[in-house]
Amino acid sequence: MENDILNYTQNRELSWLKFNKRVLEEAQDPTVPLLERMKFVAIFTSNLDEFFMIRVGSLFDMVQTDSNTIDSRSGMTPGEQLEKIFEAVAPLYKERDKTYAEIKKQLSPYGVCGLDFKELEQSEKKYVKKYFKEQILPILSPQIVDANHPFPHLLNKEIYVTANLKYKDKTMQGIVPVPQFVSDILYLPGHDIRYIRMEKVIMEYMNLVFEQYEVTDKNYICVTRNADIAPDDEALEVNDDFRYLMKETLHKRRRMAVVRLEVAEKLSEEMERYFCGKFAIQPNQIFRTKMPMKLAYMFAISGNLPEAMKRSLVYPAFTPQNSAQVQDGSPMKQQIRKKDLLLYYPYESMNPFLRLIKEASTDPNVLTIKITIYRLAKKARLVEYLCAAAENGKEVTVLIELRARFDEQNNIDWSERLEEAGCRVIYGFDGYKVHSKVCLITYRNRNEIQYITQIGTGNYNEKTAAMYTDLSLMTANAEIGRDASEFFKNMSISNLDGMYNRLIVAPTSLKQRVLYLMDEEIRKGGSGRIVMKMNSLTDVDFIEKVSEASRAGVKIDLIVRGICCILPGVKDYTENVTVTSIVGRYLEHPRIFSFGTGADQKIYIGSADMMTRNTEKRVEVACPVLDEDIGRQINHYLKIMLTDNVKARVLKPDGNYEKKEQEEPRTDSQALFMQESLNAKWKAPENPQTFLDKIRHLFGK
Predict the structure, then answer these.
(1) Upper half-sphere CA count for residue 516 (Cβ side, 13 Å)
(2) pLDDT value at 696 more than 70
(3) Keyword S-adenosyl-L-methionine on this protein (predicted)?
(4) Predicted model pTM
(5) Is there a binding annotation on residue 219?
(6) Cα–Cα distance between 419 and 403 in angstroms, integer?
(7) Do 441 and 471 share a structural domain?
(8) How far is the C-alpha of 353 from the C-alpha of 18, rounded, in Å?
(9) Mean per-residue pLDDT for 429-452?
(10) Is 226 annotated as a binding residue?
(11) Are residues 40 and 159 in the same domain?
């Protein structure tokens, strides 16, 4: 019985690769506009880069330190997982290259042309050569590799042009970094968007870079380095400033071991041995790619298109709408005191929450504003309002997580700005990232202390709030407010063991409460009902409880965007479980937990996925939905997502995903939510039954 779980689970890394394949499928979808398809190729590529830096890097560390560790969901050692990963990644490279080439070909009639040097017209070749000699050649930093010139350190995810060099009877390697401070592409003269990538320009003119040498075997390469650094592992004194520690961590990340080498041209056996020796890698860590190693410039190209062309190549413009539940001109605090409010990004705008903070910054009755921050945009009105509040004499406490992966430097910069304005900035706990999304406004009302609490499923990031789907609940509920106040007090004194009446908080109570509520549904047997939405699912305790609930007859629908280690529909284990993944225009991000039906239903929203790192090694917060209208609203969202038959894929017992059959009515959940937000208008709250009747009428129920 001990290994029963292996009958209905799969490896997390291989599951993630299947998620990224679903991203690539969006790039292959002919109904998606061409430049949006190219963006999905870019997202797939960026995802894969991060996967190698973090997950593959972590497995390499495990091979070095504890190679016999067995993955509880697949029974594999770290070394066996790496073999399976490299085996699964190789065909994805080929599929991505083919997808990129097809999209590139279809963009050409629109005048968007990424060119090889041999495809340039004669006048363009002259232009490129002149540009190279005048603007690029003077700033290059070429190097030879021989006895007197050691092989240089190659920076993570930077491109280097290489070649074999021969001078008299000596042969050596030449390496030229593509300068980081020049554009990734060179636009060619003319009305169309014709361009050539900078590494191709440099590769073409390597003979001008190394004039005295015979140049052969030109190539360009890119290394991916292990970036899985935990600051807690760094040997620094306890009293060292944590912000300084993070700066040191970022510096070290640039020099970590190579986990992948990408090459543009096929390597000879000799060159393969050479690079394997220099980077201490195996041949299966070398991947040839026929498409650009960086694709970020595609986002800039779409911004430079003429408006008429853009309409054909990108999604129709959509602006997050003002929530139909929010009245313009009425102070947010008053509206929330009357009734809880739920915002659904990006269909609805983040502005009501920002308005709440801005109004609080000047409200004479507001005493304190406290907030946890994980990721912020490069430009953040939220920070402006928090700084203004501090400058206006409010006590502002910001718990900012400096270890938010790849946003560390941005968060360091913001923490310094907040401190300068007089905010109290704290950094959380050793060994536990603070991933919660909580904001608490405390104010005095006729000598009584009252609260407005906001709990979200996503970051306070004004840029991603227009790109990720997320929920943001604002409530004046006194119990939730007192819990939030207790939460911030505990965060300030490094107490992870706080007790709360309404909020459930990881690492102490969130998983325990979820498992308890699942037990309640198990006791109902066939009338039990569980619906959960999250980004990833890996936690073994949760997986085993899902199987137990399924065996008891509970109907379980899981909406999991990314990694899902449980396999549904496995006889005797998960026959009552379905798993749906939605990949579309927006990144699905809410975490919703629903238990039961009707009057007994309990709904929570929060920041945590059912992953062991979230439930046991992070500070996460989930909040009950107590307003009946908002409960119906969330049920509506879940129902539409479960009926999606356009962008939804269903996980099968063998671990593969299949699209649903395109039956009528066709339901694209994201498109429907966009349309609903466009159609919605503010009106005075209705009684709940009228609202429910309208929903039933809308969907023919």
Answers:
(1) 7
(2) no
(3) no
(4) 0.91
(5) no
(6) 18
(7) yes
(8) 36
(9) 94
(10) no
(11) yes
Question: Residue 123: exposed, middle, or buried by beta-carbon count in 10 A (0-12, 13-18, 19+)?
Answer: exposed
**CB-based burial of residue 36 (10 Å sphere; 0-12 exposed, 13-18 middle, 19+ buried)?**
middle
Number of domains the chain is built from: 3
- From 493, 527, 551, the end of a domain falls on 493
> Which residues have a Cβ under 8 Å from the Cβ of 308 and sit 6 or more positions away?
none
C-alpha 341/C-alpha 326 separation (Å) is 8
145 bridge partner residues: 173
Hey, CA dihedral for 183, 185, 189, 190, is it positive or negative? negative
Q: What is the dihedral of CA 271, 276, 282, 288, to 10 degrees?
A: -50
Same domain, 457 and 547: no
What's 700's DSSP letter?
A: T
Q: In terms of domains, do 486 and 522 share one?
A: no
Residue 341 binned pLDDT confidence (cut-offs 50, 70, 90):
very high
Structural domain includes residue 696: no
Cα–Cα distance measured from residue 307 to residue 304, given in angstroms and rounded to the nearest whole number: 9
- Residue pair 214/246 in contact by the 8 Å Cβ criterion: no
Q: Name residue 132's amino acid.
A: F
Instruction: Please name the residues in contact with 303: beta carbons below 8 A apart, sequence gap of 6 or more.
Output: none
How many C-beta neighbours within 10 Å does residue 314 have?
17
Distance CA(251)–CA(87), nearest Å, equals 32
Whether 467 and 580 share a structural domain: no
Residue 424 within a domain: yes
Three-state SS annotation for 496-541: CCCCCCCCEEECCCHHHHHHHHHHHHHHHHHHCEEEEEECCECCHH
One domain, residues 364 and 276:
no
Catalytic residue, chosen from 153, 435, 636, 697, is: 435
697 is in an annotated binding site: no
Residue 279, token pair as written in the block: 């980077």
Q: Tokens for 385?
A: 């309002």
Q: Does residue 552 have a pLDDT over 60?
A: yes
143-145 vs 648-651, strand pairing mode: unpaired
Strands 366-373 and 438-445: antiparallel
Calculate the CA dihedral of residues 460, 462, 468, 473 and round it to 10 degrees: 50
- C-alpha angle 303-304-307 in degrees, rounded to nearest 5: 85
Active site residue 435: yes
Q: CATH number for the domain including 160? A: 3.30.1840.10
Beta carbons within 10 angstroms of residue 70's beta carbon: 11
Q: Is residue 614 included in any domain, yes or no?
A: yes
Phi and psi (nearest 5°) for 296? -60, -25
Between CA 309 and CA 109 the distance in angstroms is: 11
What letter would DSSP give residue 582? Answer: E
Pairing state between β 395-400 and 424-426: parallel
What is the domain-level CATH number for residue 343?
3.30.870.10
H-state helical runs in 181-260: 198-204, 206-209, 242-253
* Residues 439 and 531 occupy one common structural domain: no
User: Which residue among 472, 493, 514 closes a domain?
Assistant: 493
How far CA 365 is from CA of 361, 445, 482, 502, 509, in Å, comes to 10, 7, 18, 26, 33
Backbone angles phi, psi at 147, to 5 degrees: -60, -30
Tokens 């604002």, located at residue: 474
Peptide bond before residue 507 is cis, with ω within 30 degrees of 0: yes
Is 361 part of a structural domain of the chain?
A: yes
Q: Which domain holds residue 390?
A: 332-493
Question: Tens digits of per-residue pLDDT, 230-288?
Answer: 544 333 333 446 565 556 655 554 568 999 999 999 999 999 999 999 999 999 999 99
591 is in an annotated binding site: no
Residue 92: per-residue pLDDT: 98
Answer yes or no: is 589 a known binding residue.
yes
What single-letter DSSP state applies at residue 149? B
Tell whether 375 is in a known binding site: yes
Do both 529 and 668 map to the same domain?
Answer: yes
